[in-house]
Amino acid sequence: MNFPNSGTRLPQSPRPSKQPRSSQPFLAPLPPLADILERAHVVSLPMAVKFRGLRHREVVLIDGPAGWGEFAPFADYTARETAPWLRSGVEAAYQGFPSPNRDYIEVNATVPAVEPAQVPEVLSRMPGARCVKVKVAEPGKDFRDALADDIARVSAVREELSGIPGTRIRVDANGAWTVEQAVEAVSALAPLDYVEQPCATPEELAEVRTQLMRRGIFVRVAADESIRRVEDPYRVADLQAADVAVVKVAPLGGVRRVLQLSADLRARHMDVTIASALDSVVGINAGLAAVASLPKLNDDEDIDVAPAPAGLATGSLFLEDVAAPRSLVDGMLATAPVAPDADRLAALAADGATRDWWLDRLRAAYAQMEAHRARENGESWAPR
Ligand SMILES: [Mg+2]
């Protein structure tokens, strides 16, 4: 198997004068709000572990003419920021996904900030995963103590993967380090596929990238938290702040928008990892559809270069979901969409007050979409 960019760093192109931002005609006209509301199911899914302080993840599922869509922006998103989430859900429900280029895609396993002794057990739940993302820089700890733990955890992962060909380790610091700490930590943890969001800001990411390059440490930098809005990836690219963009379908406004963005970023020598934003099985459908539809790339020997392993194996974060979890086979997930089970939808239905709150949020997102559409003459409706 041939992996693109592993341990190599492609030069980035000089910043173009204008950001490539082709707008894709989408759903003219928008489906009526009343129709979306009529098709909406609000469910509350119990989480296996607390995530973003949540014990339950609430999502709106839309049973549309083309399939199921999801609308589930986190509570701290403004109405304006929730519009792309609805755009994504409406795309899945009313337009469906583009035709796939692959039936299975590789995903990464995730190792949270556990003790090294727990690593084998954590990895045993992700059979066949050859790419492992390890959480590092645990919050609330002294830098040096945390780094010692990180080194031990990453070594335990490396040991578990030893002997398996084509394995890769990524680390995710969730923006916790300063530039100096990031350079020190990455030097100690290398070799790595990439370091995800080592520092908080795109400017710091750019500095880490430059310093690593100067020292001859060939570890790529990935931006995750720095990419929340459609504009952000272009800013990260403009600053040459990252080699990889971690992109999530819902906050960026749907599968087609992510495919366009991926093409734009690849044209600027950035790689793309598609990940989930704590989505139910329905939301994961969209992430899988995006990876499945990435164009086929061939290397010098004309071998199809698989997309970067996706961060979509997050189903195990839920105790219960609206359909049976997708099974991971040899580190791969099937890309065909999964529909919710009627029984599970009924059993996991949210209470009346929760349902009302979410439908109000959906109305507010719809209003934002309409307003944006009016401003842009119907060309595109991602918020600015
Ligand atoms: Mg991350």
List keywords for this structure.
384 residues, seven-stranded parallel sheet, three-stranded antiparallel sheet, disordered N terminus, disordered C terminus, binds magnesium ion
Largest sheet: 7 strands, parallel
Find the structural class using helix and strand composition: alpha/beta
What general form does the structure show? globular
What strand line-up does the widest sheet have? 5-6-7-8-9-10-11
- Radius of gyration equals 20 Å
Between the first and last Cα atoms, what is the distance in angstroms?
40 Å
Summarize the structure.
Its EC number is 4.2.1.113. The chain is of the alpha/beta class and 384 residues long. 36% of the residues lie in helices and 18% in strands.
Element layout with pairings:
Layout: H1 33-38, E1 40-51, E2 54-64, E3 67-71, H2 79-95, E4 104-106, E5 109-111, H3 119-124, E6 131-135, H4 143-161, E7 168-172, H5 179-189, E8 194-196, H6 202-214, E9 220-223, H7 231-238, E10 244-248, H8 249-252, H9 255-267, E11 271-275, H10 281-293, E12 297-298, E13 304-305, E14 332-334, H11 342-347, H12 352-375
Parallel strand pairs: 5-6, 6-7, 7-8, 8-9, 9-10, 10-11
Antiparallel strand pairs: 1-2, 2-3, 4-14, 12-13
Helix pairs in contact: 2-12, 4-5, 5-6, 9-10
Residues 172, 174, 196-197, 224 line the site of magnesium ion (MG).
Write up what this structure looks like.
By secondary structure, the chain is α/β, with parallel strands linked by helices. Helices cover 36% and strands 18% of the residues. The strands form four sheets. The chain has a seven-stranded parallel β-sheet. Strands 1-2-3 form a three-stranded antiparallel β-sheet, with helices on both faces. Strands 4-14 form a two-stranded antiparallel ribbon. Helix 4 runs parallel beside helix 5, helix 5 packs across helix 6 and helix 9 runs parallel beside helix 10. The longest helix is centred in the last third of the chain and has 24 residues. The site of magnesium ion has 5 residues, from loops. Magnesium ion (MG) binds next to loops. Keywords: Lyase, Magnesium, Menaquinone biosynthesis, Metal-binding.
